Amino acid sequence: IADIMINGPDTTYIEINGKIKKTDIKFRDNQHLTTICQRIVGAIGRRVDEASPICDARLPDGSRVNVIIPPLAIDGSAMTIRKFTKEKLTLEKLVEFGSMTPSCAKLIMAIGRCRVNVLISGGTGSGKTTMLNCLTRYIDPGERIITCEDAAELQLQQPHVVRLETRPPNLEGVGEVTMRDLVKNCLRMRPERIIVGEVRGPEAFDLLQAMNTGHDGSMGTVHA
Questions:
Q1: What pTM was computed for the model?
Q2: Which CATH number is correct for 3-82, 3.10.20.340, 3.40.50.150, 3.40.30.10, 3.30.450.370?
């Protein structure tokens, strides 16, 4: 199972092998579902309630969870869990699956090794993070890499890696650390490569500026 999608107390879908299927799983009512959502995010120090009806977080096993509750979710609380396989995909396996040709895989290997700036574009669930993980396997082990993510998903194999993660505001509405804050800060950390898990806001300017000021080989993903 790659994704679990709960659309209110009566509707649950899962994605298996790239296909979305409806299940028979149901909850007693919306309060039951909301309580489960609150327990899941509460266990990792986050909250979701009427005052803060949206939560996006990373679970202890590395899975990503998103919860949105009424009044923003009109038909009842919705929870989406993106699970990541423990077995890491490689370019060789993608060729084996028929996802790319051998010549395409060789080109991607060269891109990863040659410090080329890369932006991977694609739709939701198209495999942007998977491709980024494959690319990073060919970065020289001696390079200092700093990653910036909303929810840590990247699986880098190199020893010299610093992982940074954004933080939402607290109950008083303060203390938020945005993606742009992370990108700006990592420029002061002597990075050789900067990898942004998902570029979707003002941090795009800072990343492009970094790419043009000596941080060749930086990478990121954008939604198509």
A1: 0.77
A2: 3.30.450.370
d(CA 187, CA 84): 29
Local structure of residue 166 (DSSP, 8 states):
-
What torsion, rounded to 10 degrees, do the Cα atoms 143, 216, 116, 185 define?
A: 80
Evaluated on CA atoms 20, 166, 179, 173, the torsion sign reads positive
pLDDT one-digit tens code per residue, 56-103: 888 888 888 999 999 999 999 999 998 877 677 789 998 998 889 999
**Phi/psi-derived region of residue 161, left when phi > 0, alpha when psi is between -120 and 50, beta in every other case:** beta
- Other beta carbons within 10 angstroms of residue 180's beta carbon come to 17
- 97 Cβ contact partners less than 8 Å away, ≥ 6 residues apart: none
